[in-house]
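Handout for the seminar on molecular recognition.
Each group receives one record of this type.
Step one: identify the two inputs.
Step two: read the structure output and locate the region that could contact pyridoxal-5'-phosphate.
Step three: write two sentences on what you found, then compare them with the reference statements printed after the record.
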Amino acid sequence: MHIETDIVHGGQHPDKWTGALSPPIYQTSTFVFRDADHGARLFKGEEKGHIYTRISNPTIELLASKIALLEAGEAGLVFASGLAAIFNVVIAVVRSGENIVSDDTIYGGTYTLFKNILPRLGIEVIFVDVSNPGKVQSALNDRTRLLFIETPANPTLKIIDIGACAEQAQKKGIPLCVDNTFATPYLQRPIDLGAEIIVHSATKYFGGHGDIIGGVAVGREEFIHAMWKGAKDVGASISPFNAWLILRGLKTLAVRMERHCATAQKIAEFLEKHDKVETVYYPGLKSHPGHEIARRQMRGFGGMIGFDVKGGKETGKTLMNSVGLCTLAVSLGDVDTLIEHPGSMTHSGYTDQELLDSGIKPGFVRLSVGLEHVDDLIDDLKQALGKI
Ligand SMILES: Cc1ncc(COP(=O)(O)O)c(C=O)c1O
């Protein structure tokens, strides 16, 4: 089936008890055992069944299997947030005394987790520019257990060649983990290009409506099972209702992504011509250094744009304080267009020098293009840029 069809139907069947087309929300913390021996068998793993929602739940499992199908992975596991998914992947793969090689441009929360939390567990994170194969080669060592990237990366829209990266990881015998939040499997399927583990903030395009927090990891069956064994004791499970909202949001993923891409392309072209804008970072622009790689590995360029406003941080602030239709808020992938300043908001865990090293200039503004009419968005940006 085409991915558009899988997005609507994949993994879903009418409810076997009632015929309900929309899947039931199993909003329960616990599940009743037939008798004491049944409970004991479930705990021992001798019989399949649900025990307690932190351990498993049918609504959450439906979402996990649907996203695994969309990502072309064998299995998936859903978490309370994207960061919970990333943390659980890391602790499933890496032990104290070992390390991760990560791209230096990643979501600020992931960066803080890697820089501040993991070292407390004895896990070192080596940050390099992964788009430079030579730098990756020299960073990988005998204690490296994971190569981690985002592409397109948050917030600079840096593009990394997934196939080339996967090859380097395979040579080293370690998995490549791709945070596919910005692209979604509708635009890019890293497993088809050699990646082994995929993570998502489901809060973003999967949910799509800005009303939930959730995360997902996808990979080989054996790996996901091993990760589940640890994750159930870490306790970062999503609520069944939030899982259901993601299932509901997912149904329109294909049409939403088409519109996000089309509108973002037009806005990026408008910004590129504007005299108050210094640089526009959008992989759909020919001027973007990753344009050719993005064309090869993505079917569309996504709904995220970065741009440097001439004059730096103060003029960036004027712009953000002057928009009317665009909303000044973090998060992304919503139906509403959101604008923010990564340097002081989502990426404030980076030092000033680290921001510059990752290509995030003081006046860098991030735009998550929503589903409003493109002309209204351009008019809003035009009037706000006019205030500078
Ligand atoms: C690329 C990316 N990965 C992971 C996360 C973390 O996801 P969550 O906020 O759902 O924990 C975010 C959040 O913005 C993100 O942008």
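Reference statements: Residues 81-83, 107, 109-110, 150, 154, 179, 181, 201, 203, 213, 215 surround pyridoxal-5'-phosphate (CB under 6 Å). The domain at 3-250 is CATH 3.40.640.10 (Aspartate Aminotransferase; domain 2).
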